[in-house]
Hints:
The chain is mainly α. It folds into two domains: 10-198, Growth Hormone, Chain: A, CATH 1.20.1250.20; 231-425, Up-down Bundle (Growth Hormone, Chain: A), CATH 1.20.1250. 76% of the residues lie in helices and 0% in strands. It has 18 helices and no strands. Helix 13 runs parallel beside helix 15 (328-357). The longest helix has 43 residues, at 138-180. It is globular, with a radius of gyration of 24 Å. The protein starts with 13 loop residues before the first helix and ends with a helix. Residues 196-227 and 439-448 have low confidence and may be disordered.
Amino acid sequence: MQAKNGNPPDGGYGWIVVVSAFMVMGLTVAVLKTFGLFFVEIQQHFDELASTTSWITSVTIAVFHLGAPVASSLCVQYTHRTVVITGGLLAFSGMALGFFGLNIVWMYATTGFLQGLGISFSWTPAISIVSHYFSKKRALANAIASAGECAFAFTFGPFFQWLISQYGWKGALLIIGGIQLNICVCGALMRPLASSCLLEASHCDTETPPGNGASRRDKEDKSPTMHKTFNWMLVRRPEFVLYAIFGILAAMSFFIPPLFLVPLSYSLGIDESWTASLLSILAMVDLGGRLLCGWYANLHVTKTIHLLAMTITLISTSLMLLPLANNYLSLAIFTGFYGFFFGTTVAIHITVLADVVGMPEFDSALGLFMLIRSTGGFVGPPLAGLIVDVAGDYRAGFYMAGATLVLSAGFLVILDRLQQRKKKGSKIRTKPEKSTFPYPSLHILKHQ
């Protein structure tokens, strides 16, 4: 697959890749989001404490993030297609082996470690290859692909519950594992791009005659701009470091609202059946936010990093206002605002990462970003829980999340200023020196 003039196709077969990535998002992250339905069943089967059983999900999340650099490195050395297919096989193995349910440690190793590694090896290259296939429409393509997470999570809840009631939790795991084998099919559809398409247009050789395809490919393979190894040195680039800090602070906040939303509604005396609908509202507006923001970003009216800073600010505002709710209607409205703006952020934050580091370094940057960002996901919920315990009010957790997001937006502003300063500096350096002599002949004589 080669695009004209070596540029990303920005359409065509790329939309097949987007649909495949949409499916992968649903068969990985959506499964992880709804795995809590198995929690009570597994806890009762092994007669374990809740804290002991919860380590299954904790291991999955940890391996998902820690495996991202490995997945990115394999994408650089092999192909995205190979890594996604491998991830599908690992995800299936984790669920299929979990079917035997020997003991709780066995569950850690199968539905925890293997499933987490499968999700990492599927999710990371799927979201990466979409960015390689698109340039002008990258934001829209990433938004559509990420929407698979919301669409599948909305339907997986009742479906998984039905599977458990019909086949037991072990049988449900085996069936879900079989469904996850479709990740391999999606991976097979992720056709690798030619080397030149993996680079920015400025790095591509556009002067090679069209008829000389073989020599062009040889030249591309020997091009010094192609990175065949994982680039750990990105941590020395100020732009990447600033964006990684933003990622840590944002991750600290993003895991808090879903954690405390239900307890907050209970504290307000809202009925359990109405509380469950809040999660459905969250999923629906999240999906709408992703698609709408992807469409708007595709218009290129606003710079993506500016758009991200705006959505982060709006999320923090909605989180600061959410604790003011005192009944179901007001809580549902503020939840809707939070879910919508969260969706807009998820839709474009990967696109901004690609803009910050450039496509030649994107695979390495995505793996490192996921790894570094995971620290925020691990620290945020316990810290918020501590603040809630001290304050004795679930509202304190939302205030903490909002304040942290405001701080993260500050790093986006600093990053944007740094990029603008470097851009101005490069323009000054490349500006030709003006001669003070009005006549070229006199200028030549002067230098002689």
